[in-house]
Each structure stands twice: as C-alpha cells, then as structure tokens.
C-alpha cells in the first residue's frame, strides 16, 4: 500500500481503524509537530511519534473503558518521541554516558561479490561466526574482514542461518522483493487474533494509572520486546521480567530497557523454576515473549497450552522476520532487517555519497515494533474487557520495515539535514534522574502525556534476579 502522503496522525488513525477500536477515541489525540528529526530519507520521525501515540491512546482507551469515563487527552511531541527512540543510547549512569552495545568484529563487511552485515553482540553469535570463518577466539575485525572476502554474500548468509550465526547479505529493494520471505511479511504491522472465547474480563481496577493492576510476564532480550514491556510499565502495569541464568545479558541496554520492571531469573528447563513461571502465568493478564516463532512451544508454552492454563491471557509475540515464510525461524535483529530488506541501500542511494549502505539513525524497527506490540497488547485488553476471550498479538521487525517503506522517502537529500540527538547533552530537557540499583540513572522520560494521569516508571533497574516471582497485588 502507498502511504506516501500520510501524516503521523493518518498513521495513528489507519492502524487504529485496522484494530477495530472506537474511532471516537482519536478526538483525544494531540500530536505536536515541533520540528524535523532524524537524518534519513526514511520517515523515522513519523514512525516514532505515531507508534508512541498509538500505545498511549490504547492505554487511555482501556483506562476509560474499565472506569466508565471518557478517553483523556493524550499529547505526544515529535521531538520527545524521537529522543525516546534513542533512549538506550542517551542515558547517563553515575555521570558516564551509555557505552556502545555493539561487538568488536560485527557490522558491514565486504564479501567476494557484495556486502554482508554481522551481528556479534551475543557471545554465541560471535563464536558461531568465527567457526564458520575458520577463525579462533580473539580474532580481530581485520581478520574477519579478510576471511569474509572468501565468501559469496548469499552463501555466507545461508551458512550463518544454518549454523547459528547472525549474518545477512546486503540487498536492494528489488533483491529483497524477489525473495519469498518478502511476500510472506504481513501487510499490517500489528496482528491480533482471538485465541479462545470467553466472558468479558477487565481484571484489577486498583491504582490510578491507565494499566494499574495489569500483570505482565515478559521473557525477552534486546530492545523490541523489552520496549513493549517498558511501555506497559510506564502506564502502570506490574511487569515481571524473566531472564535465564544460563543466557548472557546486555547490561548496557538493560540499564534503560529494564525501567519499570521487577527482575526474576528462572531456568524454565528446571522443573521447579518452570512451576514458578506457570504459577505466574496462571494469574497474569499478559505474556510477552521475544523469541523465534515456536521456540517456546517446545517448553510447553505454546499459545494453545497457555490459553488452557489461563483462558484470559493475552500472548504477545515479537519476531524478526514474521510468522510465515522460509525465514520465519531465522535469527534476526533490527540492523539485519535494515540490511537484508534494502533499506540501507536505498538510504545510501538517496544520500548520494557512493556508500554501499547507510544505516538508519536509530534502531527504528526495534522501537517501532516495541510500541506497536504494546499497542496490540492494550488493544487486546480492551477487546477482552468488551468481548471476552484470550488473544494473540504478533508484531515483527520486518512488518515495521514494510510499514515505514510504505510511507515513502523524503525527496532528494531533504531528509538528511534533519536534527539528530547523539549525546545526553542534546536532550537534557527530556531526561529525569532517579536512583537505581546501579547508582544514579539519568534517562529519557516517556514521551506520551495523558491529561490527569501520571505516566512514567516507579521501578528502576536493579541486578538481575533481585525480585521474587510473585505479583504485587492479590
């Protein structure tokens, strides 16, 4: 679909309508256009403001429904929304700015017949990539670059998918469009399906925030799904973030993304820990998971099994490439989706400096997907309150890519002169200081304001496993 003439408000209205939510709620939305942001030919600023606005409007609608009130006024500034789309890069901890979360050997590399991008933030992905390249641990970026030249880009991509590394070939729009996976990506970025019938159910009505009393179990790593949990927490949900003691973490990202969440460590392959998880899920409202499609089904956590356990549960899934298609089971991250889908090539061509690729100025697909997943969750809460039932929500990074591409590109080089935010000093107006489990944390406030209702985080990041697996209320 061609959405080249859409404004951010048009995007909100369009997606709101596809979710079959009451159109009257749109009258409560105030989008402030206070500048042009993000140097890119793609409309990343549009995506930021519209997705954050959608998540807030859905939360406000649910609040109004369960309290039998009118939807309060929501205000989202374009600048503040864009700042929040870079929140994991703009915090300050104990006076020191956020360090880079990127590994030392990844990024864009020249192959024998093109280019590839490698993701190496997690040790297992780095190790598997080095094995494929026949390199030892401790290899430098120069070592990797030399070995990459022995491979054709598509051959390396195929091998990486098969052997647990995260490497994709750089493609143009045309090359991406020729793949079956491109056709398999859903046309809409939020998919909501009723997983089971049931009676209308609101859940707890305690508390003054939009989602106060809503219980969320989050099992995720890396930006997108954590943004969804963090957003629900900003609106008052009780979010328990479950991590595995057997998997590596990314503390530099977690310092921002863990705001609003209590932290529990469980090994779900251990029967006692699995029982603790199931006990939480039995009385949860929402389960967010960011693993590859079907990954948790082998642990007894399929949609069907979860709904049998809790017939009022909303299951929210975040994937890289979508639910369908030959790439559905492949690993993927924001930067890889940008590379494989033609976004990086198209941005470089529009910039006109002869670069093979140009990355977006933020992790736009991660953040966009996170806010859209939160929107889907809260829309499902509304549907559960009105119609009853359990629901499944699906959002993918590739789906967000497809949507931002449908918005078109700014003409010629006009998009590249837009304002960016590269250091905390650029965004002081939007930062708040709080004491965390790691010291003083100065981080980006949530960009959505709701009239008469406090929005923000009551819990600050703390060491993993600091909390007990039990709900705050009931």
Describe the protein.
Helix content is 36%, strand content 16%. The strands form 4 sheets. It has a 7-stranded mixed beta sheet. A 4-stranded antiparallel beta sheet has the order 4-3-16-15, with no helix packed on it. A 3-stranded mixed beta sheet has the order 1-2-17. It has 474 residues and is of the alpha/beta class.
Topology record:
Elements: H1 8-18, E1 29-32, H2 44-67, E2 74-77, H3 78-84, E3 92-93, E4 96-97, E5 107-110, E6 115-118, H4 123-132, H5 141-148, H6 153-163, E7 167-169, H7 173-177, H8 180-184, E8 191-196, E9 215-219, H9 224-234, E10 238-243, H10 251-257, E11 261-265, H11 271-282, E12 286-289, H12 303-309, E13 314-319, H13 334-341, H14 343-351, H15 364-387, E14 390-396, H16 397-406, E15 431-436, E16 439-444, E17 448-450
Parallel strand pairs: 1-2, 9-10, 9-12, 10-11, 12-13, 13-14
Antiparallel strand pairs: 2-17, 3-4, 3-16, 5-6, 6-7, 8-14, 15-16
Family: Belongs to the CoA-transferase III family.
GO molecular function, one term: transferase activity
Keywords: Transferase
The gist of it:
This is CoA-transferase family III domain-containing protein. With about 475 residues, the chain is of the alpha/beta class.
Which short descriptors sum up this protein?
474 residues; alpha/beta; seven-stranded mixed sheet; four-stranded antiparallel sheet; 16 helices; 17 strands
Distinct helical segment count: 16
**Beta-sheet strand percentage?**
15-25%
Q: Distance between termini?
A: 46 Å
Number of strands: 17
Low-pLDDT stretches are: none
Instruction: Give the averaged pLDDT, no decimals.
Output: 97
Rounded to an integer, what's the Rg over CA atoms?
Answer: 21 Å
Morphology: globular
Question: For the report, how would you describe the main beta sheet?
Answer: 7 strands, mixed
Strand order of the largest sheet: 8-14-13-12-9-10-11
Helix fraction bin:
25-40%
The class by helix and strand makeup works out as alpha/beta
Keywords: Transferase
Family: Belongs to the CoA-transferase III family.
GO molecular function, one term: transferase activity
Pfam family, one: CoA_transf_3
